[in-house]
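EI: anyone free to look at a 461-residue chain?
SC: sure, send it
EI:
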Amino acid sequence: WVLVVNEYEIRCKWVLVVNWYGMPILNSRCRSWNVDAELRMLIVVTGKITEVEVKNDDRNIVLIARPFGFGMNGVIEIKLHQDKIFLPEGSPAPNKDKLGFFITTAEAETQLESDLSEGGCVLDNPNIDRLFTFQEMDQNRNSDGSFDYINRIAPDKGGEYSLFFANCLPQAVVSFEIKVSLYNENSAGSKDYLSAGEAMLPTVYMIMFVLYLCALILWCYGIYSKNTTSHKIHYLMGGLLLAKAMTVLSQSGMYHLIRTTGGPDGWNIAYYIFTFLRGTMLFTVIVLIGTGWSFLKPFLADREKKVIMVVIPLQVFANIATIILDESGPAVKGWFTWRDIFHLLDIICCCAILFPIVWSIKHLREASHTDGKAARNMVKLTLFRQFYVMVVSYIYFTRIVVYLLKSTTPYEYLWLSDAAGELATLAFYCITGYLFRPASDNPYFALEPDEAAELEMEEAK
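SC: here you go
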């Protein structure tokens, strides 16, 4: 193989080796440099400033930066260096006009995919806006070999664009390091690194923090004033509210700093921690309420324990994996596949938590036919049915409707989908809290001695 660095050539060859953890990898060994270059890609995403190190990538198209909404004064800044091209030994000099970067809108991507299926180079496609090629880059390098590029979006060309790298050279393998800054300039000339559709998010999340904080204060007051009728689950529900309030607070701080500096400056760490706690506690609370733990019975049946032992670890795994995906960026190979897998895993967890509620409804329906307890069990049955409908509606809205809103809403109003999701979550928390609030006159918590004895017998079985 030949390594082309600017205008210099170095002889290389591919070698199949096994790395330290037993996985086969393909190395490129170059005698003159005496180095080994693994196929890898390192990405550092800090807000809307993306740093990508591509190592020996042979893909035809690589998504470098996710969709960003540009307003009337949108700017793209790119700094690229350490670019290299690998070609088979004996190949002619590469046509560097076939390597370059381009932006395109989501609307044009559909037509672009159709055109690419017919063959041809994407850089020659009329549905894209080509930024620069490697040939143009060679003609305008800095003294240190790097390349700086600035593109100002025309006022009438504002929209949501994604940044791609295209490789139209057959058998070519490319390496480079790139730093991308996407922002809009306001009237004062300062940089706003938030996409046009995210401009309202710091305010939205701060308002939601205030609302969740008020709900938490009211919940704590309810527990304190009804201490004799409070159960362990009520304290867990209070912890869930606190975790959710801190999640939206960290989101507000994160988006505010991204707007001013281009990076979250540590707020993303707080967001990941509280999101992990909130997600785990949410599924735990729903499962425990569905089983009637703490206020209907002091124990969990074997099948209920199995659901918890399956759902909670899966949710923990999905949360950690989502964090890793968010920090890596879409340029990593297989990023979209893993994203879809984890979304599917989240939906599976959402469906699994419905089983305890269904089991409780079935038990109460059977118990409602027993003489002397029909009225009491019918009230509990109604509450469980209401809770089941709420959980299904919450899952449907936050996992499907919000996604559809993001896909169909104009890019300037993408924040509306986040606001809708947060309002739906707040409504779900408030209604659930009202139905299962600590109150002496709440028939849901009343448990007769004979009912407790029956439940204990069922657990013994």
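EI: The mean pLDDT is 75.
SC: 👍
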